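Purpose: get a first structural picture of the assembly so the mutagenesis plan has something to point at.
Setup: two entries, given in the order below. No constraints added.
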Amino acid sequence: MRQQEFENLYQEKWLAFAEQCELLEKRKTLDSKIDFSANYREVCHNLALAQQRGFSPGLVGRLEKLSARGHQLLYKNRRSLLGRIVRFISAGFPRLIRKNSSLFWLATSICYLPALIVFLIVWADPDMAYSILGSETTAQLEGNFNPGNERITTNRDIDSDFYMFGYYLWNNITVDLRTFAGGILAGIGSLFILLLNAVMLGGASGHMLNMGYEDTFFTFVIAHGAPELTGMVISAMAGLKIGWGLIAPGNYSRKNALFIRSKEGIRLLFGAIFLTAIAAPIEAFWSSIGTIAPSVKYTVGAISWLLVAAYLMFAGRQGDTDGFK
Amino acid sequence: MLDNTSKVETPEGIELPLEVAGLVPRTMAYLIDWLIFIAVYILLSLALTPFGNFGRGLFLILFFLLYWLYPIFFEVFRNGQTPGKKSLGLKVVHQDGTPVSLSASFVRNLLLIADFLPFFYTAGFISMLFNHNFKRLGDLAAGTLVIYTQKDSQEDPIPQVKPKAPAVTLNLEEQRSILSLAERHQQLSQARQQELSDLLPEQLFPAKTNNGNSNNSRLKQLHAFANWLRGH
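Result (structure tokens, whole complex):
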């Protein structure tokens, strides 16, 4: 068949297919009688023929454009975003943590062991707080958690709570995102940010204990600490996931290992963002209330840790085929 | 051949050419997006800061969303194109040519920080220069490409001349070249078309019209061949 005959034979179908593409690109639905994927395959077939028979570059180009349009439309993810988020949070994320449990415990110990060591150092030698945290941060901590401080004894107005909510959300999630991105430096960036935060946590706890401010400090941090610290650990885990892909790519090239590990790493990060986002309103609207009895705050704090642990351990067990049983 | 086309094979057994965009258009697109970002940032801060702590809190949240989600929103929900990319006719796709997913868009945009290192996107520039698909680190990790959107070019019908068979049998490649020359008769200057037809060997043209023919008629003969090849 010569090119002209070929064009005459299929011209109408191509025009119809282009119209269907245009409708779909405008997010409209097609008539249920139209089988878009069959039409698309036919255009692909025409393209293959046109290439193989050496038809003119103009025709080949036109069919290439048409099949590229169809390709974009056919392979679009059409599942609803909200449904995917709900499924991920209710099952996908905890499963992912259980699947990567050794990495999780590694990141957890990289956070809490140095924190504990720094805590013990500061506890044993109170002056170390000034060398580890710096005099500015120590002064700020002392100001914030002094039980005589009026911020502790009277409640803030809702406006400042909201301001702090925005601040925590912005600051903490940004830390998570940076921790993840630091993973591409063979994991060193993630480790650095995680260790930095661990040292701050341990140093601040030790210093507050030495100053005798432990009730105001620990009642503040305990409740939102559960999701926030876990989120931080998981974002480091996400960064280490891609960093480890570069150090030990296994049977893949480093480029491919990076690509494959990023797919799982980014899902870990989504989970970390979720946990950190939960922590922000708790920190702004609950932790900041200084007038509640410490016993109540410790109880709520303990419940918060238990909830986070239970969520990661048990959510989405049903139908879980990857994780630990 | 120097070529910025990356071919991807689809499950339908065809190869789609993706025309990968290089450093300069991508930098320009980035600068446009950056200017838009700054403009929205200034508007937000002017609009919200007078409203006390509530306004400042809202500003921080909106700034956070703007800062991180601006490119991701447009890439995922607006056909792979941020406003800057759209103005330059670029779009982001997966390396297999499918529309970019939320995860991939997050990865490539978050790793922009890594591309920035050690200063002013040096890592990204170096990575793009050494990768034949101009991928920066974020693109490598996300498995994405920035390509030119395919413009709807107006097709010119080839000039209608009485069809004539060439004097020798042509292989597919040669047939395609002649068809291509005829299809581009309105895009190339007359002089250039004649120059191109001069390069062809004498044997191609039937002997009797060869005597004293001008270049113009040589071109006409090529158009006649093209008509014959198409099967008019």
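Chain B has a mean pLDDT of 85.
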